[in-house]
Design a protein that fits this description.
The complex is a heterodimer of chains A (482) and B (510). Chain A is built from 19 helices and two strands. In chain A, strand 1 and strand 2 form a beta hairpin. In chain B, a hairpin with a 4-residue loop joins strand 1 and strand 2. The longest helix of chain B has 32 residues. Classes of the chains: A mainly alpha (482), B mainly alpha (510).
Chain lengths: 482, 510
């Protein structure tokens, strides 16, 4: 077993962070200092450590764990997502005081699982990491004081999660039985055509359901709007972003198996097309903001599939870049949702009315977030979508690209609704607490919005990173191959 | 000519930077003066453009790698076609600020912010030489325009703004698909490089349709014009001015910059259809305008007709047609912009845009009526005004191309005279129900109307300098067009294989 401790510094640092949280959660409830006082610094440091480790490389644990450009890209994104989530959650109004350390510990464990997931290059390891990332989520989602909906959401998530992981495990057994290996690197050289290996194709499809569930891809999305709606705003922010990053990195790794024209690729393409269409059409009818965002993420899961079906490094890197864009855009929107709903209630579209007057910075950031999700330039969402469609065009899935383009046109309506309510409607509902306009709220929203805008205008550095990561999966640059 | 500094980037970036400065201002009056100053500085920053040399090359070129691995470039440059549009945009900005001086009574800061941002985006559209950069600017202009209508518009503003947004965005998503297709087939996003390539007829056929839809919605051509009257009527005066003066030109500019050079064979193939739609737009716009009781709606429908002349000129593929089209783009910007400013002025006094509420203005507002009459004459192409020069050229081109096309346009010109006369006569000599105490134009309004009036006469009486600017570029455009449409035509029957093409596109085969 080859083991290089230096290559694992980001994970180890994060693991220590989670251990400290665990110790605090075990101690007395009044243990000082409160977790919100120190955790943002810890999470910030973890993000910093993840950045400094971007050039690390190495394969260990008998080839099941691989630190490469792709894993580092996602680790940085996940660490950043955790940092923002921690900041976002620091003023969570619907969490009982005694449960704070436990809450962060569970979020931390889930994030740690996602970090492992981004380096896992073997199916069983992927499965284990996925479970580690999921278990804590089952416990976190119902943590919303005095809300019946939260319990329902929790149950839904557990049931759907259990079914999809069971399917994934079932698929894993098929793959093992037919291809005699679970290492992606070796699976790359096997045939994935239905005619040659029907069992393996069925197995991979089933295995992918685990990822599709996390990503909320149609038809594994049914939990998504309900869970967003039932969970507290801050928890929803986590569920809506982080597990998806984990799913995307695994799908990127598995995408090297997919060659255009294979049955399984076509299945994924069809699921993608259905997912975007279904998500967007359903979102049109929503008035609950979190449900709307839930359906929008179903649509976005479909968009990401466009990058994966092309079977090229460009496609994989476009999907990775879009994953990052999605993370930022959704963190931004959920940040604003959490700041407007200072009492932790669920927001409806009309709650946004007159936001430009009450909280101009939040309103402006909301506009940037909404237009980024539409895919309007000059935001990161546009660049992401642009890379996706350029990568997929001419690889046999032009119809999928056209579906994406048409879906973007449908999506305008409801995203524009967010903007319209915030900027052009004046009559705000009475008797609701004013949005949080503190410097903390504005600075957070402003910075995330600035990031969405700036990366949209100057995408080259991050995109080149994603591109190198994509090429490394295909063995084009050093550290290549699985 | 090299001025040692990036002229075009400065022009695009300055309004953006100035817009950010607005955040630090409080008083509405200061906001107005500040924006006015910014727009005058913007005009001054355009002085280096006088160094434009009269040839067909792209000038003031700036080229920086944007996303190297994806072949994106920050690539700007202007030729004879775009320079007029750039200048028009820059001149319209201070006029917009002036004409909304007293009209905008709420959220002044945001209003001027939108104006400045939009100027940046539109300038970017006219300067971009990279397809994606073009698309970025093309889409970026949507949001401020949406806000201008949705926040400061009339009673029905929500409907109008949404319609505007959905129409234009739905159209441009297909433009994006065409852009990607050009990159995959041509290997680059650079417009000048793509202009040198010969694409297969099938490829041109589909990309032309995708691009033409986006541009036709923007122009707007019949039957995609329905967003325009709604948007115009609801938008505040400055919004209508900027919409009529520059935004509509983006569509026709797109035809000239993309459809003709990149898909010449398809342009020729679709020319009869485009010409037919143009003629329908001219006749339909004119006929509907004739029946309007709302002055703003009348001018909005007249825009559909005038822009019909422009698209007609473009798809005639002869020198006069193209010259006339380009000149009409400029003329329509000046004249219709001025007409909307006048409507804004009269609305401020009567709070109504109905013709019947604005009768007898010749007596109460003689200066206003003078400008109105002057612009109305320019609008229907009275000799000596710019409208005459442009329309005449298009008509000459039409007759040169085919006598039938020429004859089809004549009623359009007559209709224009009819609706303009009708509204002007009523407004000038109609008998108002009660005596009015309206004050005539003030100094600010005099200034903002004199500037377009000077251009009307200049282009009308001495158009030679404008020809000098546009002729080389148009000649090159048409020469290239003639050469390349032959080179790229394949011997096949495209319409018979259209269904097969759809299936091939779906299946991912070329």
């Amino acid at each position: 077993m080859n083991f290089h401790i230096t290559t694992l510094v980001p994970e180890l640092f994060f693991f220590c962070l989670v251990l400290v949280l665990m110790i605090q959660s075990l101690g007395s409830r009044e243990w000082q200092p409160p977790v919100e006082k120190w955790l943002p610094f810890g999470a910030g440091l973890a993000f910093f450590v993840a950045i400094t480790g971007f050039a690390l490389q190495g394969t260990m644990f008998w080839g099941v764990y691989k630190v490469d450009m792709m894993s580092q890209f996602f680790k940085i994104a996940i660490a950043f997502g955790f940092y923002v989530t921690v900041l976002n959650t620091s003023r969570q109004p619907t969490l009982e005081d005694g449960k704070r350390a436990d809450y962060y510990m569970l979020l931390g464990f889930s994030t740690f699982g996602l970090m492992l997931l981004s380096s896992a290059v073997e199916l069983i390891t992927i499965y284990l990491a996925l479970e580690l990332a999921s278990y804590s989520m089952y416990a976190v989602i119902p943590l919303r004081a005095k809300s019946k909906g939260a319990a329902e959401a929790g149950v839904k998530y557990v049931l759907f999660g259990a079914v999809s992981t069971a399917l994934a495990l079932y698929g894993l057994s098929y793959i093992m039985a037919s291809q005699h290996t679970t290492h992606i690197a070796e699976l790359m050289n096997k045939s994935w055509s239905f005619a040659d290996q029907p069992m393996a194709v069925v197995g991979l499809t089933l295995f992918l359901t685990g990822m599709f569930f996390k990503l909320a891809l149609f038809p594994f999305h049914f939990w998504c709007p309900d869970v967003y709606q039932g969970a507290s705003n801050e928890t929803a922010a986590f569920v809506a972003t982080m597990p998806k990053m984990g799913a995307i990195v695994v799908l990127c790794r598995l995408a090297v198996l997919l060659k255009p024209g294979l049955e399984i690729t076509t299945i994924i393409a069809i699921l993608g097309a259905l997912s975007m269409t279904f998500g967007n059409l359903s979102a049109l009818a929503q008035t609950d903001l979190k449900r709307l965002l839930g359906f929008s993420s179903v649509a976005h899961a479909g968009y990401i599939m466009v990058g994966l079906v092309s079977g090229t490094p460009e496609g994989v890197s476009a999907a990775a870049f879009y994953g990052l864009a999605y993370l930022l855009m959704n963190l931004l929107l959920f940040w604003i949702v959490s700041r407007i709903a200072v009492d932790g209630r669920n927001l409806h579209l009309k709650d946004l009315n007159g936001l430009y007057k009450k909280a101009p910075v939040l309103a402006f950031s909301l506009a940037i977030g909404a237009f980024a999700l539409v895919g309007l330039p000059p935001t990161m969402g546009f660049m992401g979508k642009f890379f996706l469609i350029t990568s997929a065009w001419d690889h046999g899935y032009n119809w999928l690209v056209i579906t994406l383009v048409l879906n973007s046109a449908i999506a305008i309506y409801y995203y524009l609704g967010l903007f319209r309510h915030a900027f052009t409607e004046e009559k705000a509902p009475a008797d609701v607490p004013a949005p949080d306009t503190s410097w903390f709220a504005s600075a957070g929203a402003g910075m995330l919005a600035a990031a969405v805008l700036l990366i949209g205008i100057i995408p080259a550095p991050l995109f080149n990173f994603a591109m190198t990561a994509g090429e490394s999966l295909y063995g084009i640059v050093s550290g290549g191959g699985h | 000519m090299d001025f040692g500094y990036p002229v075009l980037t400065t022009l695009i970036a300055f309004p953006l930077v100035a817009a950010c400065g607005l955040f630090f201002l409080r008083s509405p009056q200061v906001v107005r003066y500040y924006t006015m100053a910014a727009s005058i500085i913007e005009c001054l920053l355009a002085i280096p453009l006088t160094g434009f040399t009269m040839n067909a090359e792209f000038q003031f070129v700036e080229k920086i790698d944007w996303v190297h691995k994806w072949g994106l470039q920050y690539y700007l440059g202007i030729d004879g076609i775009s320079i007029l549009m750039v200048l028009l945009t820059i001149v319209v900005l201070p006029l917009c600020v002036m004409c909304s001086w007293t009209y905008i009574g709420k959220r002044e800061k945001e209003f001027h912010f939108c104006l400045l941002i939009m100027t940046s985006a539109v300038l970017g559209v006219f300067c971009a030489l990279d397809l994606v950069l073009f698309y970025v600017f093309w889409e970026a202009m949507l949001i401020p325009m949406y806000l201008l209508i949705a926040v400061w518009g009339g009673d029905d503003r929500r409907y109008a703004s949404l319609k505007f947004f959905l129409y234009t965005l739905a159209g441009s998503t297909l433009l994006l698909a065409a852009i990607v297709a050009f990159r995959i087939t041509g290997g680059t996003f650079s417009i000048p490089e793509l202009m040198q390539m010969n694409f297969s007829f099938r490829f041109q056929f589909w990309t032309f349709l995708a691009m033409a839809l986006a541009f036709a919605i923007k122009v707007p051509m019949f039957p995609f014009h329905t967003w325009l009257p709604a948007a115009h009527v609801q938008a505040p005066a400055a919004g209508s001015v900027i919409l009529a003066a520059v935004l509509l030109k983006m569509g026709t500019y797109g035809f000239l910059r993309f459809c003709l050079p990149l898909a010449p064979a398809a342009s020729e193939y679709f020319a009869p259809m485009m010409i037919a739609i143009s003629i329908v737009s001219i006749l339909y716009g004119g006929a509907i305008a004739l029946g309007q009781s709302d002055i703003k709606k009348l001018v909005a429908y007249s825009s559909v007709a005038h822009m019909g002349f422009v698209t007609l000129g473009i798809f005639l593929f002869n020198m006069q047609g193209a010259q006339g089209a380009l000149l009409q783009m400029l003329n329509h910007g000046i004249v219709t912009g001025a007409l909307f400013m006048l409507i804004g002025a009269v609305y401020e006094r009567s709070h109504s845009r109905e013709i019947t509420d604005n009768l007898g203005l010749g007596k109460y507002l003689p200066a206003f009526m003078f400008f109105w009459g002057f612009m109305a004459m320019a609008s229907f192409g009275f000799p000596g005004t710019n409208g005459f020069v442009g329309e005449m050229l298009v008509l000459t081109g039409a007759f040169k191309s085919s006598v039938i096309i020429g004859f089809c346009c004549i009623p359009g010109a007559l209709l224009a005279a009819a609706y303009m006369f009708r509204v002007s006569l009523k407004m000038a000599w109609g008998r108002p129900s009660s005596a009015k105490t309206w004050r005539d134009l003030n100094a600010r309004e005099w200034i903002m109307l004199t500037i377009p009036a000077v251009f009307v006469l200049w282009i009308g009486l001495a158009p030679a300098p404008f020809y000098k600017i546009i002729d080389p570029s148009i000649e090159k455009l048409l020469n290239d067009f003639d050469k390349r449409k032959v080179a790229s035509i394949e011997v096949e029957q495209p319409l018979q294989t259209a269904a097969a093409d759809v299936l091939n596109v779906i299946a991912g085969k070329k």
